[in-house]
Write a structure and sequence with these properties.
The complex is a heterodimer of chains A (263) and B (440).
Chain A (H helix, E strand, L loop, with lengths): L9 H6 L6 E4 L1 H6 L1 H16 L4 E2 L10 H5 L3 H17 L4 E4 L2 H10 L8 E4 H10 L14 E4 L13 H9 L3 E2 L30 H10 L5 E4 L2 H13 L7 E4 H8 L3
Parallel strand pairs in A: 1-2, 1-3, 3-4, 5-6, 5-7, 7-8
Helix pairs in contact in A: 3-11, 7-8, 9-10
Chain B lengths: L3 H28 L11 H13 L8 H30 L10 H29 L14 H33 L25 H25 L7 H10 L13 H11 L29 H9 L5 H5 L1 H4 L6 H22 L9 H4 L3 H5 L6 H5 L6 H15 L5 H13 L18
The chains are: A alpha/beta (263), B mainly alpha (440).
Chain lengths: 263, 440
């Protein structure tokens, strides 16, 4: 196990007069949420391992504004967006990768009109490219033949039409992917989107994350895979609610690949 | 005297089509109460969508049974309209089966109309069974009580009646042809209505003529009544699906529009050379209102969406909030928007211009609880077979609640304050954003 990870910042690159290949947009969850931080680190290990010259903004990064916009606060969203765009354009960023589909959607779709034009990739898309370029090696390892199911994040799937990149990576892991009944364009939300993550749900007869977790459990998986830190949190909670946390892992695809490679 | 039927027919036709046009104009006027949309881009992609989604019904078959039945009714509806053309010409000029001159092609046409009519009849009966006997869940949600439920059934009864009349008319006509009755030229091939012939075995020519003429008249009058029923029903989608798909969203579903008025403000705030006391530049008006509290704050496309909705409930059936018992139902958002728009339309009909009625879409039609239950997951948008976007209305109403009323739920206010103060929805310092790097 390699212990040290290399996480250069844009400021450091700038000081050396260099430009990284890609900016890794960590996002708020990836920076602060204990569970999501593990995903961040797993992805960084993969980047280090593949020899990708990347940088993070570090303390210069700020919320993309997605939850504010979806909560109805357009003003706060645009304030965040324009501040971020100033930083990104200041560093002449061309290409961004992020492990959060909400950041991905906002950076890709809502920043261009405000002057922020970048090539934006979800980390599963980026990893797939690394794989195709032969820079990243993905083999079955410990997931070979294991039953897994994949939960489509709304903001990667329906919102942006990316269903295949994560599945292609899972195929490489040689795991047995059992699809849920509601998958791909019909995938059921985990319940966190649209700023729901930050508030209690309205009264109803069930929590959305429990409905989704139950559906995932019906596939009798050993691992439930997600591609979004918020989905990960929601389904992890669901698995705990169902008292299955000792039998079933909830993992991000980056973690699985890092795991399989013993990184 | 011999022209009386022709004159009566002309009157019925003009009245039927005239009243329909009058109501179409009302729909047009009401939609124009919405905000103008900018220039329409990417027309070829939009036309492509119309052909694929509206004409080609590509999203209907996501549910194979309902999709197949719907395509039968849809194809039947379009093809049988060729027969209506013949009926109109016959009615106006006192001819009988004017297209019979086409010979064997006519036989093929009549035969295909008959087969389609039977298929439509069967499909419509199956639709009725799905709704009323099997009680498919999406047809029994709270918003479907009363008129919406009856409306759906009336449409099915109408279609059953029209198809039956068509087949009875053909059967009687066929029997008259066999009897060699005057005026009933031998024409057409009747693979379905032939089976009805035994019913008419012992009928006299006069009785048969009465049956044939009654079925003919009831059929065409039924069509004219049905045409005019559209305006009052959920069934406008047969016409509006086409423009609605054309104007539907073509950007990625996750993209929400950025408000230009806000952009102007923020740019001004971030401009170090801006004079904070300067008067706004000429021609730049302050926006009346952020977001939507009533239907007139919505765009024309959103209002067209509301008229197009046929209340199939696929959106609601896929809504995670609705599936878990929350009040939110995307279909109800569309129904409420139309109800409120029609209320405003009637107000204008009555008073000439809109007379304030102390009501609005927010609270009187759509509650805050519904709006805050949405996860913005786009399942409703994906599910709609005719490109309706209920999410855009929910988002515009949230915008109003937050930007105009500061009425977000308390927990969201906390998250937004955090974003404002420290650049994350949680209360962590922005300076700690890279701490993960050195943690175990």
């Amino acid at each position: 196990m390699s212990e040290t990870i290399k996480v250069p910042t844009m400021a450091e690159y700038m000081a050396q007069g260099k430009q990284p290949e890609v900016l890794f947009w960590v996002g708020c969850a990836g920076s602060f949420d204990d569970r999501a931080k593990k995903i961040t680190k797993a992805f960084v290990k993969l980047l280090n391992n593949a020899g990708v010259e990347f940088a993070v903004l570090g303390t210069e990064e700020s919320c993309t504004g997605d939850p504010a916009k979806r909560a109805g606060n357009e003003f706060l969203f645009q304030m965040q967006a324009m501040m971020n765009i100033q930083v990104l354009n200041g560093y002449e960023i061309k290409k961004i990768v992020t492990a959060c589909p909400h950041c991905f959607n906002t950076l890709k779709n809502e920043y261009p009109d405000l002057g922020g034009n970048y090539q934006v990739l979800h980390h599963t898309q980026f990893l797939k490219i690394l794989l195709e370029e032969g820079r990243l090696k993905v083999e079955g390892g410990k997931f070979k033949g294991k039953r897994i199911t994949y939960h489509d994040p709304c903001y990667l799937g329906r919102a942006n039409g990316e269903y295949e990149a994560p599945r292609d990576l899972l195929k490489k892991l040689e795991a047995e992917l059992i699809e849920m009944k509601r998958c791909k364009s019909k995938g059921l939300c985990c319940g966190a989107g649209g700023a729901q993550m930050f508030k209690e749900a309205e009264p109803g007869d069930k929590e959305i994350f429990i409905e989704r977790t139950e559906e995932a459990l019906q596939t009798k998986p050993e691992t439930i895979v997600a591609g979004c830190p918020f989905c990960n949190t929601m389904i992890t909670d669901g698995v705990k609610f169902k008292e299955k946390q000792d039998e079933i892992n909830v993992l991000d695809i980056a973690e699985m690949i890092a795991n399989a490679e013993n990184l | 005297m011999q022209y009386i039927p022709n004159i009566l027919f002309l009157i019925a036709l003009v009245a039927g089509i005239g009243y329909f046009i009058k109501n179409c104009k009302k729909i047009y006027r009401n939609i124009k109460l919405g905000k103008e949309i900018g220039e329409i881009d990417n027309k070829s992609l939009r036309m492509n969508n119309v052909i694929r989604i509206a004409l080609g019904q590509s999203k209907m078959t996501v549910r194979p049974i309902a999709g197949l039945l719907h395509i039968i009714v849809y194809v039947g509806f379009i093809i049988i309209n060729i027969e209506v053309l013949e009926i109109i010409i016959d009615g106006l000029f006192g001819t009988h089966r004017i297209f019979a001159g086409m010979g064997s092609l006519y036989n093929v046409l009549i035969a295909s109309f008959e087969i389609l009519a039977l298929l439509v009849l069967v499909s419509v009966i199956l639709f009725w069974i799905r709704r009323n006997i099997i009680k498919i869940r999406r047809f029994w949600k709270p918003e479907m009580k009363g008129w919406p439920k009856n409306d759906a059934n009336y449409i099915l009864y109408f279609e059953m009646l029209l198809m039956s009349l068509f087949l009875i008319m053909n059967a009687a006509d066929q029997q008259l042809q066999l009897l060699g009755a005057e005026h009933y030229i031998k024409a057409g091939y009747f693979p379905v209505s032939s089976w009805l012939l035994p019913l008419f075995d012992n009928f006299s020519e006069t009785t048969l003529i009465i049956i044939e003429r009654s079925a003919w008249w009831l059929h065409i009058l039924g069509i004219l009544i049905f045409l005019n029923y559209l305006y009052f029903s959920k069934h406008l989608h047969i016409l509006l699906a086409f423009p609605n798909v054309y104007y539907g969203k073509i950007t990625p579903k996750g993209k929400l529009p950025n408000l230009q008025s806000v952009t102007n403000e923020v740019q001004l705030m971030m401009d170090p050379n801006a004079d904070p006391f300067a008067a706004p530049p000429e021609g730049q008006e302050t926006p009346e209102k952020f977001g939507a509290s009533d239907v007139t704050d919505l765009t024309r496309v959103q209002l067209l969406n509301a008229y197009t909705c046929t209340e199939c409930g696929r959106c609601t059936d896929n809504c995670p909030a609705n599936l878990t018992g929350k009040k939110l139902s995307p279909r109800k958002i569309m129904m409420a928007t139309r109800d409120r728009l029609e209320e405003i339309g009637k107000n204008i009909d009555k008073n000439g211009t809109f007379k304030p009625d102390d009501k609005q879409l927010l609270d009187d039609y759509i509650s805050r609880e519904e709006l805050w239950a949405c996860t913005t997951c786009n399942a409703c948008v994906e599910a709609c077979p005719v490109s309706i976007d209920p999410l855009s209305i929910i988002m515009d109403m949230r915008l109003y609640l937050v930007m105009e009323q500061s009425a977000a739920p308390q927990e969201l206010n906390i998250a937004m304050t955090n974003i404002e103060n420290n650049g994350a929805p949680w209360p962590y310092n922005q300076m700690d954003r890279l701490n993960w790097k050195n943690e175990d």
